[in-house]
# Entry
Amino acid sequence: MSHVLFLTQRMVAGYGVDVVIHNVTRELHALGHEVTVAAVDRDGSFDDIRVHAVEPTLGAVRKLASAIGPTVIVAHTPPFFGMLPTLQRGWPCWAWEHGDPLPSLFDADREHRAREASAKRSDCYPRVSGVIAISEFIRRDIGFPAAHVILNGCDHAPDAGPKSAGSLDPLDRPLRVGTLMRLGAGEARYKGAAEFLDLARRSRADRLDAEFHLMGRGSPADAAAFERGGFRVHLNASEAEKWDYLRDLDVFVSCSLWEGFNLPLVEAQAVGTLGMALDTGAHPETTPFALSSIEEMRAFLHAVAHDRALLHAHSCRAYAHVRRRFRWSETARRFAAHVLDRSGHAEPPQA
Amino acid sequence: MWYTRGRTMCLDLYGNTTSAARVDDVLAEDARRRKLRRAVRPLRPGVAVVAVVAPADAEAVLDHVDRERHAFWRHNLELEAVLVAPPGTPFEPLLRSAAHRVLARAISGADGVHEAVNSACVTAALEAVLLVDGSIAFPASGTPLLQMYLHLSSAPDRGVVAPVLWGRDGIASDGGVRIAAEASGECVFVPEPIHCAPLWGEAALLQATASRCLMARWRAFVGAGGLDPELTPGPARVALCLGAGRLGLRTHRLNGGPFSSPDAPGLPLPARLSDVPRMARRWCAYLRSSGT
# Structure
């Protein structure tokens, strides 16, 4: 049995990394391994696994590691990546990379983001036991070809099976189109907020009979632009509300310009909803419908709105694709095979 | 090569393309497609024959269009010809050829053949477009274009129809492309088999075709974004069919010829290395998810 120490900035619902750590931890438990999760911020959303509070300092992490004696330390987010080369003296350390959005998609801290990514390439990856990438895209994007690709899962999503043809009829009801993303000006560019608003505007100009929905974490101020654009906004929904929302949509759209994996897109498909995204980031790996442009999205929405049999066929296709390809048990199995089976027990840290 | 090990499109999703370049590409592609869609309306019933043709072959194309035009008119359909000069060939001879014909015009492909073809198709404002290379010989008799159009327009889910192309030795040289996903994750492009000589007028459903002669419903052509200027001709035509298919518009093979082709039997020309990631990113997951 191995003992894994996962390090992350936050175990707070709505950020994606928390979902990965939660599900991998559960699967590693099922394989007989022990896992300790240490996070700077916690919101109590994951009370079925042990989550320790940790200060984001090398001393605090070293103290925790010395106390629990992990077989391996795995960092998922900054600032812990930067500590790994030092911690590597005492324990095998791995970086589990979820990636960094393109700095050019941010206005406020573009240079800082570019420097952080560059520092990881030069100071972290070559100086740790190994790097895990959550998609083939991330393996390329982080500029470290030796990274092991371990895909995320999707089977934490409730499985009600593919949608029935009847549930997507009749033609006289509007097509329900929506997305799920964090709101707020800081991430709006990278999440493709303007592109999604544009898609809705063009679809309406095209007289598409559709409702446009948006779910996400944020404030009413963050939602204002979408509400002015005619969207129905669902702010800060619960987990149960999220699953109902994703299932009730006819088409889930991601206009994001960069994604290392895009869990909401995969989750939507896993509950039976047709998911489509732009040909950006890891989307070619996570949906069969990686489209070339907003204009192609518009044409595609128009086609499935007027042909519900086509919508049903594509929904089933998306469901089968993600359910077959993305399983947390496989994520954990590959992690165990690549990392734990090679790590052995480390020497205690140097004083 | 796209057809490495004979026929395989490797799953090289990203190649050397950076994230930033892909974002730029998405935005550029959007502008290109919007321009394509804005260009025309309303459509008239009929066919625009858009022929990429060297001057030496232009008269044969125009002769055939003239010969079939009366049959089209009897069905209240229009038939017009647009000659596209490939880069490196003189444009003026095509202009002269078109100038003394009815409903014919010529455009230069100097800035890109696919861009010229796309422009010709949308400005023609007819319900269907025939994309044909000058190397294809039309049948000496009959009304094959009319038969293709009637087949295409007889059901709403038909997007593309391509004739069987026959080599000069009497062997079918192009009957469509079937795309299979292998366990290795690679997509294999194989020629659609033609087991025996198909009956005259016999149609078959295809996944796609890379044929140098295909007729597309305007809605399928524009909906699929026309011919992708970033791809070489074979992959661009396959992508056109796949794009139409994703919109619910199917590709058919029709033995409505005999059209003849100088190509050897088998697959069309290989693609450029740079075609692979673009095709793979947009189509491999889609094709693999179909269970083919």
